[in-house]
Amino acid sequence: MHDDAWWMRRALGWAQLAAERGDVPIGAVLAKDDELLAMAHDARELLADPTGHAELICLREGARKIGDWRLDGCTLYVTLEPCPMCAGGLVQARVKRLVYGASNARWGACREGVDPNILANPRFNHRVEITAGVLEDECARLLKETFRAYRRKET
Prior knowledge:
This protein is an alpha/beta fold. Helix content is about 40%, strand content about 20%.
């Protein structure tokens, strides 16, 4: 049985691939019962798609693989705390658990104290369990290094 850190390392690999392809370095992996269902990286630039976030791509691929939009019992591992759009996708897909690495100060929508905290909204009929901070330093470092390199290229 693989632990959260093992799965997060897979997501970090996909985040690195996103950076190499010119996209935001965010990676995600969807698993159920220790089985890999989907993996993706942010691909907004690559696909020219505003919804091309790693989380949503993983949810789509996972649903396609199991043949059901309900991803009951699944865990999504992602290197950065999901934005409101992606958090809404987790609720809609009935994902059991979210594990993320770095907090997202600007767009995060899954932490206690942020507004909106989509995953804690009492109006929704599904709750997602959250584990935050898995390999947080590595996830944050990749983001910082990638954006530092982007800024150097712009000057």
